[in-house]
């Protein structure tokens, strides 16, 4: 349960940083995503998923995040 809460919190921090630091870029980003085909959006999502899993694995192996025990 601690891991799930930690992950949700980390996602909220990242989303908040994007909205706080670059609010004027959000419409451009949404237009870019809207212009992509479904398969391009799927591949972008899978790439982001893979990068996120790799970063979480790295952070966990370096001792960041909730303990596994």
From TrEMBL:
<feature type="transmembrane region" description="Helical">
    <location>
        <begin position="44"/>
        <end position="63"/>
    </location>
</feature>
<dbReference type="Pfam" id="PF09838">
    <property type="entry name" value="DUF2065"/>
</dbReference>
<protein>
    <submittedName>
        <fullName>Uncharacterized protein</fullName>
    </submittedName>
</protein>
<keyword id="KW-1133">Transmembrane helix</keyword>
<dbReference type="InterPro" id="IPR019201">
    <property type="entry name" value="DUF2065"/>
</dbReference>
<keyword id="KW-0472">Membrane</keyword>
<keyword id="KW-0812">Transmembrane</keyword>
